[in-house]
From TrEMBL:
Xref: Pfam families: DBD_Tnp_Mut, MULE
InterPro entries, sorted: MULE_transposase_dom (IPR018289), Transposase_MuDR (IPR004332), Transposase_mutator (IPR001207)
Keyword DNA-binding belongs to the record: yes
The name this protein goes by in its record: Uncharacterized protein
Keywords on record: DNA recombination, DNA-binding, Transposition
PANTHER family, per the entry: OS05G0489400 PROTEIN (PTHR31973:SF191), POLYPROTEIN, PUTATIVE-RELATED (PTHR31973)
UniProt source species: Rehmannia glutinosa
Domain Transposase MuDR plant intervals: 52-114
Domain spans labelled MULE transposase: 247-342
């Protein structure tokens, strides 16, 4: 028999149990002891440090079982549930010759269980390997350790727990307890949608000046989440202070149970690093959502002369029309990597076509661009014609405007940002939003610290390096 088989009948046959039940009923009714006539009630605050008293009442069977589990751990003994059904829970010490025992019975017409028999004395010694230490118990008992630090390492957590309970906890148990505790702290995805309005309010209060918009739909009288837009004041100010006027826009699919799309806007800071500006969580990526997102962004970034700005994207669904609506005269670059993919899909595969395209994209003067396109035409008339409806100011340096002071050919800033937040994309909505907020806050502060402690002079290090390199040429 497995020591913890809950339905085990080996030691107690059904008849024995009934007899015992009757004897206990008799014993309790005869007893005039104050403690039993007015029995103590187990309180949930005692769950990790229960002090059992004969006659004690437990709200439910689960509460009693949990208290027994905590008792096994605190006394370092292996306890087994030899009977566990609707009306009785019998617990024995796993050492066969030990007389420790506990019997709890259900009270008639209520869920309450009462401790009817209790021998608190073990004749066996304590052990370090207590089998009652289970993942569920660990996750509930120590969930608070992950509340303030969800990234806490399993190794440190395991050592802390062993020090605390002085019982063995395996690495695997510690890992599973951490995963379970984090899930518990997160709450279910549904519950997070219900708390979203309160979360947004808190976000607004703690980040004054930020733009946080929450949209909902009314479906047959039921309010449903439709979109969330977040642009923090610190990021807004940073962009206006010194970022280039080139903005990458991208959308990536979320992997949670309700799907959805995360729209991101990422700029380029004076050191040519990515600079996240705003993000939104929407149900679907379509023209209407992009329009709503870009209109909010236009107000936040105080864009009154759209022609001085350049946007970069992968030509997502509905994005082009949305741009025409929100930023009618702005320049729009297409990521050359995606252009090359489309070029390949049109049948122009192989190294020679790839090189010809990249040479034309990297050309810095209109004359050079014309030469590169001539080379393309020599390679294939059809390949050159394929670019007829792709204006060079969308993909070749030779035709880019100078407003943004940036020769970027790839939408790398958005792709890098999306890969940074990969871990957050399968989380429930509030956890994901908090993950992104913390990531942005830390990144901003780390960059600020780095700049203050290491940077010398007025030029940013990457720009200095770039100037040095081009001077040598
Ligand atoms: Zn014992």
């Amino acid at each position: 028999m497995a020591p913890f088989d809950l339905n085990s009948d080996e030691e107690y046959s059904e008849d024995d149990v009934v007899n015992e039940y009757e004897i206990e009923e008799h014993r309790v009714s005869e007893d005039d002891d104050d403690e039993v006539s007015n029995p103590p009630v187990f309180n949930s605050s005692m769950v990790y440090d229960p002090n059992f008293v004969l006659g004690m009442k437990f709200g439910t069977k689960a509460e009693f079982r949990k208290a027994v589990q905590s008792h096994a751990i605190s006394t370092k003994r292996n306890l087994k549930f030899v009977k566990n059904d609707k009306i009785r829970v019998y617990v024995r010490c796993n050492e066969s010759d030990c007389s420790w025992r506990m019997n709890a019975l259900k009270m008639p017409k209520e869920d309450t269980f009462q401790l009817r028999e209790y021998n608190p004395n073990h004749s066996c010694p304590p052990t370090f390997h207590v089998k009652n230490v289970k993942t569920g118990w660990l996750s509930e008992r120590y969930a608070h350790k992950f509340q303030s630090d969800p990234n806490r390492h399993v190794k440190g957590f395991r050592l802390d727990v062993i020090n605390d309970i002085r019982c063995h906890v395996s690495k695997d148990q510690a890992y599973r307890a951490k995963v379970k505790a984090l899930k518990m702290l997160e709450g279910s995805p549904d519950a997070q949608y219900c708390k979203l309005w309160a979360y947004v309010e808190e976000l607004r209060n703690s980040n004054p000046g930020s733009t946080i918009m929450l949209g909902s739909d009314n479906e047959n009288g039921e309010i449903r989440f439709s979109r969330l837009y977040v642009c923090f004041d610190a990021l807004k100010k940073g962009f206006l202070l010194g970022c280039r006027r080139i903005i990458g826009v991208d959308g990536c699919h979320l992997k949670g149970p309700y799907g959805g799309v995360l729209l991101t806007v990422v700029g380029t800071d004076p050191n040519n690093n990515l600079y996240p500006i705003a993000y939104a969580i929407v149900c679907k990526e379509m023209r209407e959502t992009w329009e709503w997102f870009l209109t909010a962004l236009k107000l936040d970034l105080e864009i009154v002369r759209p022609h001085e700005y350049t946007f970069m994207s992968d030509k997502q669904k509905g994005l082009i029309q949305a741009f025409e609506e929100a930023f009618p005269d702005s320049e729009h670059r297409f990521c050359v990597r995606h252009l090359h993919n489309n070029f390949k899909n049109a049948g122009f595969r192989g190294i020679s076509f790839k090189n010809a395209l990249w040479k034309a994209a990297r050309a810095t003067t209109e004359g050079e661009f014309a030469d590169r396109m001539k080379e393309m035409r020599q390679l294939s008339e059809n390949a050159a014609n394929w670019f007829d409806d792709k204006p060079p100011n969308q993909w070749s340096r030779s035709h880019f405007s100078e407003h943004n002071k940036c020769d970027m050919l790839l939408n790398n800033v958005c792709e890098s940002f999306n890969s940074c937040i990969l871990d957050a994309r399968d989380k429930p909505i509030i956890t994901m939003s908090e993950w992104i907020r913390e990531f942005l806050m830390k990144r901003l502060q780390e960059n600020r610290d780095k700049a203050q402690s290491r940077w010398k002079g007025r030029l940013c290090p990457k720009i200095k390096k770039f100037l040095k390199k081009t001077r040598r040429k």
